[in-house]
Predict the structure of DUF2490 domain-containing protein.
Amino acid sequence: MFPSSKEAELWSVLLNVRTDNESSPDINEYRPLVGLKNYFIRNQRLTFYNLARMEYRIQDFDGAEDKEFFRFRDRLGTEFALTEKANQPGAWYGIADVEVFYRTDRDISDLARLRGGLGWVIGHYVRAELIYHMQFTRTAGESFEWTDNIWRLNFKVARQHGLLQRLDFDH
């Protein structure tokens, strides 16, 4: 992540995902991305934002044709305090958002997600989040269909005091 202000942050990430498949070719994928996170509301108890990202996906299939394409992701979301003491150890917060994906190689929005979750501030350096994604997919000319249920357990770990508080809420 690059420098930020109270209104926006510029993001840059390089992901590598390796999938070891039993009955189809293994996949080694690289996803360099850049993004912009705009804040509409950002205070001690509520964050309302838009996170737009452009990914360049490079998929290396063992024994099959490789794929490269751009994918645009746009997430509109909120994080909100559920307890009186927001952003302090022991505090709970909620997460809700909607995200759409657009693939440039297919000229289609082929994926959408609704997400909800619960976060817990373990300490100034650690947070835990349990998140549920309701995923919808479609092919060209078709409507979105509910296809996947995704559960994630995230641990956010900071090396500096105040880093997590600055990323989630105005501190």
